[in-house]
Amino acid sequence: MYQVALRLTQSPGQGVLEGLLDTLADHNCRWYLRQWASYRDPPSGAASAGVRWSPDSPATQAFFEDAPMVFRRRWASCGPIAAIAVGYARALAQLHGSSAPRSRDAHRVLLLPRGRVGGGRQWHAFHLAGHQLVDPTAHMRRI
């Protein structure tokens, strides 16, 4: 396991969090492509792998796990779940001939505010597919 820590003196903004989730989505995309190149059949998403959604509670830290870790643990918050959905969509697009930059433009993680909690902002992660906003947690079992 590889762990990266980002230490900030204040809560990160939307752009920082989206950038981290976008990087995680790229990592997941490459993982999916490696799985398919090895003739493996990975789950198409968190819900199909039996992962349950655990809404974030107000916190001073966040964890961004990749697809294999989430699939093993079987629960995650909306950020890693959205990064899995976006990574899978990017991998499919590349498998069908789209370039990596074009697949990144077509599939992104987008954070939208969900109320204010204790002076901080809560976010919910979505998959922005072209002009369609998809909530990958919409039909998931909740912890």
Summary of the model, kept short:
With 143 residues, this protein is of the alpha+beta class.
Total individual domains: 1
| Residues in helix, % | 25-40%
Percent of sequence in beta strands: 15-25%
Record field, number of beta strands: 5
Q: What's the overall geometry?
A: globular
- Stretches where pLDDT falls below 50 for ≥5 residues? none
Along the chain, the helix and strand elements come as HEHEHHEEE
In DSSP terms (H or I, runs of 4 or more residues), the helix count works out at 4
Rg of Cα set: 15 Å
Write down the overall mean pLDDT.
91
Structural account:
The chain is an alpha+beta fold and 143 residues long. It has helices spanning 14-37, 67-73, 78-95, 100-106, and strands spanning 52-53, 75-76, 107-117, 120-129, 132-134. The protein has one domain (14-54, 64-134). It is built from four helices and five strands; from the N terminus they run αβαβααβββ. It has a three-stranded antiparallel β-sheet with strand order 3-4-5. It has a two-stranded parallel ribbon with strand order 1-2. Helix 1 (14-37) packs across helix 3 and helix 3 crosses helix 4. The protein is globular. 27% of the residues are buried.
